[in-house]
């Protein structure tokens, strides 16, 4: 178990309703360590300038700091080069970049796009729209009764018509870890491209895009200790050359005449306008922090907390857990329901005890419907959480049961 | 701070006027799609007065208790009076402080009623 990390996160000293904050909503967004907050302040107090255009010292420093994070991201996910790393405003925009750019020119009528039943809306709705626009067909990989992807069913969906497979690496509702390497190998065999939504995986376990062998890997900084407003799209080379820009304007253009323009190569052609420089710079500090802790240690920590929470929460009748039976099949996410109690009421009572959890549909409505419920409550863990946090969650759960069953 | 008062829990677990009316004058429904709260409201109007009311709902304790309390309130009332109901009326009946995140829950019943009343005018 990782210990003593709470001190690095100033917000965790807060009290909510007179109780110490217990933050268990990490699948929504993570809290930020002092190192990230300091990097943000340092950038604005010492190096703030626009990038890629100034000759003056500040502009050179800002450009170097911004581009340095691109290098760090490449290393963090084991990309071949930083020219495979595009910065966007969030994970959703990273996926939309693929649908609006690559999808626009590579998907045609009758083509098939496969997604999984585990997808967040971010990795479903862009493909629904692209399929509608192009007359393509969207197919869904179903789940097994144990909340895992049904691989035999996936194999049956694949054919020469499959042009793109879009899967999450880890579900934000059931925590299911998807065997993306297997998914990718099978997609490769029919010549399809593969996009992985890594929003729940990045920062929680080691990402190795070359080992996964995906074409696109999307994730967001704010779920991995970084600031909001920064997303990442990895595009395997040389695929990025086949992609047309989808936002036009300053910085992405190479030469501009009155009636036409040429564009920069690599990731820069996708970063039109002034990007989120300060937050990208601070994201670099988040990557350093995560690397110093170690991704394997974080994954083990998440897993230990999940095992502990499952043990605690499964003791109560009327509490249903939506989690794969084997601990190694899930990340640090635990969805549950309580008979006769809506998830919003659960979250309200948890909040009274200072425990922040998510409730509702988790931006994954088709998945929650598939689970056969209106909504779930969800605990999600990260490196600063402790078993004591789960004890606090269990006390809140007892209060829910007391309020709604002793009545 | 505790919003789960005896009254709210009682109305949630044993809602008053639960169930559809066989021959309603109007039937209206409204939902909060992000929460999954949903209410079907049935009103029987005679001579401009609510002669009977029924509802079928799913959702959180706040949305369902607010509808149950509201159903008690509208029975035997003139339709012209119901049109004047505001959110303050609902908060007054719930008698607890509603946080911004739960406003939509608290007011779903009122929204359903207002939808129904608009249908009378047509």
Task: Give a structural overview.
The complex is a heterodimer of chains A (407) and B (122). Chain A has 407 residues and is an alpha/beta fold. Chain A folds into two domains: 6-24 and 295-401, Aspartate Aminotransferase, domain 1; 36-291, Type I PLP-dependent aspartate aminotransferase-like (Major domain) (Aspartate Aminotransferase, domain 2), CATH 3.40.640. Chain A is built from twelve helices and 17 strands. Chain A has helices spanning 34-47, 57-76, 91-106, 125-134, 151-157, 180-189, 209-212, 277-293, 295-313, 343-352, 365-370, 387-405; strands at residues 15-16, 19-20, 22-23, 85-88, 112-116, 137-141, 162-168, 193-197, 216-220, 231-235, 253-256, 261-263, 319-322, 333-338, 355-356, 358-360, 376-380. In chain A, the strands form five sheets. A seven-stranded mixed beta sheet of chain A has the order 4-10-9-8-7-5-6, sandwiched between helices. A four-stranded antiparallel beta sheet of chain A has the order 13-14-17-16, covered by helices on one side. Chain A has a two-stranded antiparallel sheet with strand order 1-2. Chain A is globular and about 75 Å long. The mean pLDDT of chain A is 97. With 122 residues, chain B is α+β, with helices and mostly antiparallel strands. Chain B has a single domain (6-121), classed as Sufe protein. Chain: A, CATH 3.90.1010. Helix content of chain B is 43%, strand content 22%. Chain B is built from six helices and three strands. In chain B, strand 2 (37-46) and strand 3 form a beta hairpin. In chain B, helix 1 crosses helix 2 (61-74). Classes of the chains: A alpha/beta (407), B alpha+beta (122). The interface between A and B is medium-sized, with 17 and 20 residues.
């Amino acid at each position: 178990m990782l210990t003593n990390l709470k001190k690095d996160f100033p917000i965790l000293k807060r009290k909510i309703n007179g109780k110490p904050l217990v933050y268990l909503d990490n699948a929504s967004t993570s809290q930020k360590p002092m190192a990230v907050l300091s990097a943000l302040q340092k950038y604005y107090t010492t190096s703030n300038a626009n990038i890629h255009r100034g000759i003056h010292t500040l502009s050179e420093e800002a450009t170097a700091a911004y581009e340095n994070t691109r290098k760090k991201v490449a290393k963090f996910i084991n990309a071949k080069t930083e020219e495979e790393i595009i910065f966007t405003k969030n994970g959703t925009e990273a996926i939309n970049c693929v649908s609006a750019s690559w999808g626009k020119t590579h998907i045609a009528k009758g083509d098939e796009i496969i997604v999984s039943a585990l997808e967040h809306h971010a990795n479903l709705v862009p493909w629904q729209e692209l399929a509608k626009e192009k007359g393509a067909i969207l197919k869904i990989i179903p789940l097994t009764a144990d909340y895992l992807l049904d691989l035999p069913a996936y194999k049956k969906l694949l054919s020469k018509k499959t042009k793109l497979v879009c899967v999450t690496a880890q579900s934000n509702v059931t925590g299911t870890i998807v065997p993306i390497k297997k998914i990718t190998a099978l997609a490769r065999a029919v010549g399809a491209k593969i996009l992985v939504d890594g929003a729940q995986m990045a920062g929680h376990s080691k990402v190795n895009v070359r080992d996964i062998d995906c074409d696109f890997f999307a994730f967001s900084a704010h779920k991995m200790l970084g600031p909001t407003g920064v997303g990442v799209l990895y595009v395997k080379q040389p695929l990025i050359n086949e992609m047309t820009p989808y936002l036009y304007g300053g910085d992405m253009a190479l030469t501009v005449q009155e009636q036409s323009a040429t564009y920069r190569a690599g990731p820069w052609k996708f970063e039109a306008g002034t990007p989120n420089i300060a937050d990208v710079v601070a994201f670099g500090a988040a990557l350093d922090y995560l690397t110093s802790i170690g991704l394997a240690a974080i994954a083990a920590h998440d897993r230990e907390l999940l095992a502990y929470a499952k043990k605690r929460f499964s003791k109560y009748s009327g509490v249903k857990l939506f989690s794969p039976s084997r601990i190694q099949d899930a990340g640090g996410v635990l969805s549950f329901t309580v008979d006769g109690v809506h998830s919003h009421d659960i979250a309200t009572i948890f909040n009274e005890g200072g425990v922040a959890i998510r409730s509702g549909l988790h931006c994954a409505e088709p998945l929650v419907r598939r689970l056969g419920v209106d909504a779930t409550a969800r605990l999600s863990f990260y490196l600063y959480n402790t078993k004591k946090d789960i004890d606090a969650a269990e006390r809140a759960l007892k209060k829910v049961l007391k309020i709604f069953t002793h009545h | 701070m505790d919003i789960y008062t005896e009254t709210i829990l009682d109305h949630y677990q044993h809602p008053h006027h639960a169930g559809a009316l066989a021959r309603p004058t109007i039937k209206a429904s409204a939902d909060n799609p992000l929460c999954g709260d949903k209410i079907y409201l049935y009103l029987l109007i005679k001579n401009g007065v609510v002669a009977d009311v029924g509802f079928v709902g799913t959702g959180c304790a706040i949305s369902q208790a607010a509808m149950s309390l509201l159903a008690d309130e509208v029975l035997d009332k003139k339709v012209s009076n119901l049109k004047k109901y505001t959110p303050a009326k609902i908060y007054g009946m719930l008698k607890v402080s509603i946080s911004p995140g739960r406003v939509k829950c608290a007011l779903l019943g009122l929204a359903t009623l207002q939808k129904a009343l608009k249908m009378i005018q047509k």
